[in-house]
């Protein structure tokens, strides 16, 4: 087993997926990323790589939810070590078939039976706090677990009220889901609960595929050296993300930008305001990443497909790609690309 | 038979694959063994003994997979006993009846394989052609071996000395700079989409070089690696490919001209031809069958209610043995409470004395997946216009099926026979395309259609799904089961099959596509035990069928 993480910068192609993940990492309130597409296209590699790229977080050493200060630790957690240390951004895998207990946490059976104590054993949601929660094959995940996840992802808090326990703890994480639509489609009501959605396909041209395979093979054979070779690029990207996080608050979104978002959403017939909010947040994160002082139309144009394609009121039988429909619509609302430079 | 007799024979293919696995189990990730239980399978598994594999069932709970508290042992000894999960060790896992593996277990094993955890040997008895281990797992492991074409006498055992020497050499094998490109090109020309395949093939080529005593893999090793890793991944049948893609090449046919990979150097072409032709026919047929077989995706569906111990909606707890399900701690403590005075205080400082028969297990109720079988009469008597209306209704049903996450299959019957136009799937786009493209005309082999529906009903029952049948026909059967145009016999055959289907008690409806409602139709619906719906009142037809489901 290797402790090394494949460098994010070394991922070949898949620009949409990488961009979506970076934006979600800059502003977690965007609401996570759903990546649907072929098997073996590096979805899970990208999630892990991104977390590896992000700066470490400062957290209380013994805290199960990685609280930043000893005072923030939940009271049920009997914390032995209150030193504040630096730890890597957590990435937690939620496997298919995980029981609700394992996800939310439950009564610690071991202690209940052997010592007669009522204690809480934190689950995956606790571990994912302040990091990423990755669900592969999210389309095959059982409905009640998906509902639970989306609820927690939205409220930022996990509440466990059963078996005589009454526990709550912060659970703020970037939810990343992936799946292969050939094996089953995601319930339509879940689609738009994800902030951004990207379609991914395995690269079609041989050159790109060769490059992917070569880099992966090089990484697997000599991980330390490979990671070292890519460290400068990863470092540069990390700097940009950190800077973008700082800049996020000061990036302006003027009336024109808000208007653009609204017009696009109305033209699409996207339900609810969630689409507009996500579109705006994603555009702002992109502006921050690019060092722009304000959100302009080019940012909106770029993130619109990933922010909106899964919010279309769609006919389940519609075979035309949603991303293509959005692209057509953007042309209609904003005019052709050349005019967008205004 | 020695290895030199027939270097491309099935026995040699198996021997090489096993040697490869013995040399680099982590690099290969695993083997998919399709074989009925028997001496051949036992012999091949016996060869894996040096890796000290561990045999596990396809259904494993969290504690078995990841380790955790061993409740039964903890209670009897009064001390905390934890077990190590099978995924934590380095010992390869031999998974029995892997075609029945739940997607949750598969996902966790898949992650472990990705992390370089234990290699897995998936035993697939291949009882039905459309059963296979979970696709996500197949994608992650390098090798696939169909053993049913082999006889025990032909088997050639791996050479332990060669394997041992190769294991030593493996880390020194060089990777030629063009290895990746050669293997990616071959994969592309065979329609192998996943990028995990060429990675595994690179590892295979290196291990083969180690076995052959070379410093680096050469052309022969590349060809053999491609054959071992790609043959069972060759693209699906042309009619299963998504409509916007060109049909992928059949592994047994020559490559199409102008193929992207054809532009590669001639050595690659030779290798590609080698993958296609160098294998004995029965072996390549068996591998193609493995490529076609697809496992069903799982998830909670709209079918029958089931009770079980792991998931779904909670029900009251019941007594049961620890390890058979999730323990309901409160109920267990409650059961133990009245007995505390009579029981001796356990050693080890525990406060509560719990005996194994106090254990209460949680129970849950889930819904089984439902399969909606659309059985469509595409004969000439169901006039074209009516067929279009029937298709319209079927599409409405598909939309409903999509919302309740049902699986859908389409059977069409016309002329002399019925065909499974769309095997069970959740891909609605495919179902719709298939329906739209149904040709019409010819006789009405109703009995054949019912026979096909019955086969599918039985198959889905065996897999734990709940079948529902929607039959679109005008009921005017005129082709008997044996293909003869005999109206009386055709009617008799249809009725006999209808009664057998009725015994399975599927939900569903019979949609009358005829111009007038006939007596035949009423009798048919009655024999099937399903409500009849007329297409004449098209408006409420969909509603009536949806209600019947």
TrEMBL record, chain A:
Enzyme class: ligase
TM region positions: none
Domain of life: Bacteria
Presence of keyword ATP-binding: yes
Assigned EC number: 6.6.1.1
A molecular-function term among this protein's GO annotations: ATP binding
Reactions the enzyme catalyzes: protoporphyrin IX + Mg(2+) + ATP + H2O = Mg-protoporphyrin IX + ADP + phosphate + 3 H(+)
Key words of the record: ATP-binding, Bacteriochlorophyll biosynthesis, Chlorophyll biosynthesis, Ligase, Nucleotide-binding, Photosynthesis
Gene3D superfamilies: Magnesium chelatase subunit I, C-Terminal domain, P-loop containing nucleotide triphosphate hydrolases
Name of one Pfam family that matches: Mg_chelatase
GO terms for biological process, alphabetical: bacteriochlorophyll biosynthetic process; photosynthesis
Pathway: Porphyrin-containing compound metabolism; bacteriochlorophyll biosynthesis
Domain annotation AAA+ ATPase: ranges: 29-204
Similarity comment text for this entry: Belongs to the Mg-chelatase subunits D/I family.
Purpose of the protein: Involved in bacteriochlorophyll biosynthesis; introduces a magnesium ion into protoporphyrin IX to yield Mg-protoporphyrin IX.
Protein name as catalogued: Mg-protoporphyrin IX chelatase
TrEMBL record, chain B:
Compositional bias of kind Pro residues: 244-258
Domain (VWFA): residue spans on this chain: 371-549
Full protein name: VWA domain-containing protein
Domain of life: Bacteria
Database matches in Pfam families: AAA_lid_2, VWA_2
Region (Disordered): 237-270, 290-324
């Amino acid at each position: 087993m290797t402790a090394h993480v494949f460098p994010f910068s070394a991922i070949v192609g898949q620009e949409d997926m990488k961009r979506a993940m970076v934006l979600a990492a800059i502003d977690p309130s965007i609401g996570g990323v759903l990546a649907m597409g072929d098997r073996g296209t590096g979805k899970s590699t990208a999630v892990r790589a991104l977390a590896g790229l992000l700066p470490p977080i400062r957290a209380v050493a013994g805290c199960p939810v990685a609280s930043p200060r000893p005072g923030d630790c939940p009271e049920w957690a009997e914390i032995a070590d209150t030193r504040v240390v630096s730890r890597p951004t957590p990435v937690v895998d939620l496997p298919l078939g995980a029981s609700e207990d394992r996800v939310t946490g439950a009564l610690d059976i071991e202690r209940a039976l052997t010592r007669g104590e009522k204690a809480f054993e934190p689950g995956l949601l606790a571990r994912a706090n302040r990091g990423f929660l990755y669900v592969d094959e999210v389309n095959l995940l059982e409905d009640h677990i998906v509902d639970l996840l989306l609820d927690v992802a939205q409220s930022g808090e996990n509440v466990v009220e059963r078996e005589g326990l009454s526990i709550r703890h912060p659970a703020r994480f970037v939810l990343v889901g992936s799946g292969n639509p050939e094996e089953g489609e995601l319930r339509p009501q879940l689609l738009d609960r994800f902030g951004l959605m990207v379609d991914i396909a395995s690269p079609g041209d041989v050159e790109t595929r060769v490059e992917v395979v070569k880099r992966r093979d090089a990484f697997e054979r000599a991980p330390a050296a490979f990671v070292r070779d890519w460290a400068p690029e990863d470092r540069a990207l990390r700097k940009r993300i950190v800077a973008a996080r700082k800049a996020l608050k000061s990036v302006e979104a003027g009336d024109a930008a808000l208007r653009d978002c609204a017009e696009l959403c109305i033209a699409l017939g996207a339900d609810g305001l969630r689409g507009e909010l996500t579109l705006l947040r994603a555009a702002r994160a992109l502006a921050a990443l690019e060092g722009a002082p304000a959100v302009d139309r080019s940012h909106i144009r770029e993130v619109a497909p990933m922010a909106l394609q899964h919010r279309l009121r769609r006919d389940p039988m519609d075979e035309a790609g949603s991303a293509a429909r959005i692209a057509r619509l953007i042309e209609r609302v904003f005019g052709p690309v050349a005019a967008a430079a205004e | 038979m020695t290895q030199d007799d027939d270097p491309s024979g099935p026995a040699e293919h198996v021997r090489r694959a096993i040697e490869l696995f013995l040399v680099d189990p982590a690099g290969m990730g695993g083997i998919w063994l399709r074989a009925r239980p028997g001496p051949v399978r036992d012999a091949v598994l016996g060869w894996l003994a040096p890796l000290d594999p561990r045999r596990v069932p396809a259904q494993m709970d969290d504690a078995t997979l990841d380790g955790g508290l061993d409740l039964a042992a903890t209670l009897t000894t009064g001390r905390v006993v934890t077990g190590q999960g099978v995924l934590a060790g380095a010992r390869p896992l031999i998974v029995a009846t892997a075609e029945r593996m739940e997607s949750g277990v598969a996902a966790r094993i898949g992650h472990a394989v990705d992390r370089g955890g234990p290699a897995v040997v998936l035993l697939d008895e291949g009882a039905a052609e459309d059963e296979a281990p979970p696709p996500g797992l197949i994608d992650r492991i390098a090798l696939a071996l169909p053993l049913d074409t082999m006889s025990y006498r032909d088997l050639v055992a791996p050479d332990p000395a060669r394997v041992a020497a190769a294991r030593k050499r493996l880390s020194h094998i060089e990777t030629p700079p063009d290895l990746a490109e050669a293997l990616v090109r071959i994969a592309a020309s065979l329609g192998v989409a996943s990028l995990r395949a060429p990675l595994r093939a690179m590892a295979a080529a290196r291990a083969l070089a180690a076995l052959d005593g070379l410093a680096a893999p050469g052309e022969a090793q590349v060809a053999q690696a491609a054959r071992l890793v790609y043959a069972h991944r060759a693209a699906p049948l042309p009619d299963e490919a998504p409509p916007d893609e060109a049909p992928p090449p059949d592994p047994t046919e020559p490559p199409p001209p102008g193929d992207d990979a054809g532009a590669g150097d001639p050595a690659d072409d030779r290798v590609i031809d080698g993958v296609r032709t160098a294998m004995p026919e029965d072996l390549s047929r068996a591998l193609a069958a493995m490529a076609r077989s697809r496992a069903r995706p799982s998830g909670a569906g709209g079918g029958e209610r089931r009770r079980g111990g792991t998931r779904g909606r909670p029900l009251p707890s019941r007594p049961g043995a620890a390890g058979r399900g999730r323990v309901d701690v409160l109920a267990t403590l409650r059961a133990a409470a009245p007995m505390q005075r009579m029981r001796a205080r356990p050693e080890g400082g525990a406060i509560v004395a719990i005996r194994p028969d106090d254990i209460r297990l949680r129970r849950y109720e889930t819904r089984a997946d439902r399969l909606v079988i659309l059985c469509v009469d595409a004969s000439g008597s169901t006039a074209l216009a009516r067929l279009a209306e029937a298709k319209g209704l079927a599409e409405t049903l598909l939309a409903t099926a999509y919302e309740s996450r049902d699986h859908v299959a389409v059977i069409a019957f016309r002329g002399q026979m019925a065909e499974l136009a769309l095997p069970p799937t959740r891909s609605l786009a495919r179902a719709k395309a298939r329906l739209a493209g149904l040709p019409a005309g010819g006789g009405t082999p109703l009995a054949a259609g019912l026979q096909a529906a019955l086969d599918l009903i039985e198959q889905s029952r065996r897999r734990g799904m709940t079948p529902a049948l929607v039959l679109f026909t005008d009921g005017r059967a005129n082709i008997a089961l044996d293909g003869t145009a005999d109206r009386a016999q055709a009617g008799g055959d249809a009725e006999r099959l209808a009664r057998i289907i009725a015994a399975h008690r599927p939900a569903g409806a019979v949609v009358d596509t005829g111009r007038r409602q006939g007596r035949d139709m009423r009798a048919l619906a009655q024999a099937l035990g399903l409500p009849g719906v007329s297409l004449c009142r098209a408006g409420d037809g969909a509603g009536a069928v949806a209600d019947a489901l």
